[in-house]
Amino acid sequence: MTVAQRMWLTPVARQRLEEELATLKKWTAETSEADDSNAVAVRRAQQGRIQEIHELLVNAVVGEDPPNDGVAEPGMVLTVHFGDPADTETFLLGVRGADYGDIEVYSMSSPLGAAIDGARVGEARHYELPNGATQEVTLVRAVPYGLHEH
């Protein structure tokens, strides 16, 4: 039996996903009569996105910030550096495809997200880049999204 991973979402991100889901369902109903190959491909893509959004919403944790314990986990805004302390990046460890405003989002399934998950401030981790090289990343700061200065 597979246990689905709980996904952290802000209330606004959940609302946007629900609105997208309603729109997709409406479009799917409107295009169900068309029978050409383009319409079939569009319906398949819509059904795939509907399923993806449905799974996100079913497994969503909404309105609960993770603990402010400095550990990298979903719902935390992370500042990391890549080998050189001057080369920093700040991002939300969350769900791609949900809008969180102007902050970059990395998912748990991304190489960076998977590598940094569970790290504590000051801890270095490594992950593989698309070109096969290994990248070091060090967690500098981790705060819950709700406490992050926007």
Query: What is the helix fraction of residues, given as a range?
Result: 25-40%
Helix-strand pattern, N to C? Answer: EHHEEEEHEE
Q: Compute the CA-based radius of gyration.
A: 18 Å
Task: Enumerate the strands of the largest sheet in spatial order, edge to edge or round the barrel.
Answer: 5-4-3-7-6
Strand portion, in percent? 25-35%
Give the second-level CATH assignment, the architecture of the largest domain.
Roll
Overall CATH class of the largest domain: Alpha Beta
Low-confidence stretches: none
Q: SS-based structural class?
A: alpha/beta
Largest sheet: 5 strands, mixed
Q: Please count the helical segments.
A: 3
What do the pLDDT scores average to? 83
The N- to C-terminal Cα distance equals: 40 Å
Domain count: the total is 2
Number of strands: 7
Q: Oligomeric status of the shown chains? A: single chain
CATH superfamily of the largest domain: Transcription elongation factor, GreA/GreB, C-terminal domain
What would you call the shape? elongated
CATH topology of the largest domain: Chitinase A, domain 3
Structural summary, described in words:
- The protein has helices at 11-30, 37-58, 111-116, and strands at residues 7-9, 60-62, 76-82, 84-93, 105-106, 124-128, 134-144.
- It is of the alpha/beta class.
- The protein folds into two domains: 7-62; 76-147, Transcription elongation factor, GreA/GreB, C-terminal domain (Chitinase A, domain 3), CATH 3.10.50.
- A hairpin with a 5-residue loop joins β6 and β7 (134-144).
- The termini are far apart.
- The model has no long low-confidence stretch (mean pLDDT 83).
